[in-house]
Each structure stands twice: as C-alpha cells, then as structure tokens.
Amino acid sequence: MMAKLPGLGPRSARRAVLHMIKKRALLMTPLSDVLQTVAATARECLNCGNVGTSDTCDICDSPKRANGEICVVEDVADLWAMERAAVFKGRYHVLGGTLSALDAIGPDELRIPKLMDRVSSEGITEVILALNATIDGQTTAHYIAGELEKRAITVTSLAQGVPIGGELDYLDDGTITAALKARKAM
Q1: pLDDT at position 165, please?
Q2: Is 111 helix (H, G, I), strand (E, B) or coil?
Q3: Is 0.85 topped by the overall pTM?
C-alpha cells in the first residue's frame, strides 16, 4: 500500500514500513490516529477547491483576501506552494488538473465553469494564471485567457525563466528561451 504513494517506490516503501514497525508506539499509532482524523474531517472547499476542514476554506472566508484578484492553479499542492511563498494576498481557484485531449479532459471535467462563475459573481478584476509550463498547462492557460477575453478582466501569468541562483549551463533550452523572451530593462 505504501508503494502506491507518490515518491515512494517498492524499496523505499518497504524501508518506511519496517522503520514504522520497529518504532510502532512512537510512529505507527500517532500516524494512524492522524490519518483517521484527516479522513473524517478533510474536505474540498466548495468555492475554490482547496482542502480544509469546513465547506469553505480560510482563504475564501477571509475578507482581507477579497481584493479582486484570483490566482488559478492546477492542484492544491500548487496553491500550498504559492501560500508558502507568502507573496499573493488574493484568492485562489484550483482547477483539478489541465486540459488534455489525449486523456479526454475538457473544460467541464475541470473547475473552469466554476471559475467563470466566480469571476462574474465575486467582482474579480484580475485573473493570474499560475499553471505549470507544460504543453497541457499552457493549453489550459490559453483556453482560460480566451474565455476571459470576452469580459473586462485583466489576465496575467507568472513570469518564466532563470531562477534566482540558477546557472545557464544547467538550464534546459525551453527555460532559456522563456527567460530571453521575458527579459526586462535594467
């Protein structure tokens, strides 16, 4: 069962299980209790798709976050990464994936219709597309931008390029290309 978790292969899972068995009282019992609590209380926010313990998450409930900005991300892990950076002070919208013709994932399989409803009902003035720089991520971003083009909404995306501390020799061609195209005056 542990090997089915992301990032754990069969050998890593086996090592983790053996370690937990050795430290049963210290690790297994508390882990079991926490997992039961999470299973009983965790739910998806009905508004944005974040994970919390109530029908609406703390971010959606916060009046300080109602600033007219909404950041669109693929999944909850991306939302949590943005929150960890502590620079965005608006609200989020979790799509639940990206458009993919090969996997038969269209706009209705994602939370795109809900995003359009939120843009209309919440007085949104800017939508920030924080989607991964993959083919499917960019396709999804272009689709959403096209849908929002019909409204008086500013649509922006995260800058892409050379990370702080990055060395050109270690970057892939796509990153270097994006960085060169997004260059700015000094």
Answers
A1: 80
A2: coil
A3: no
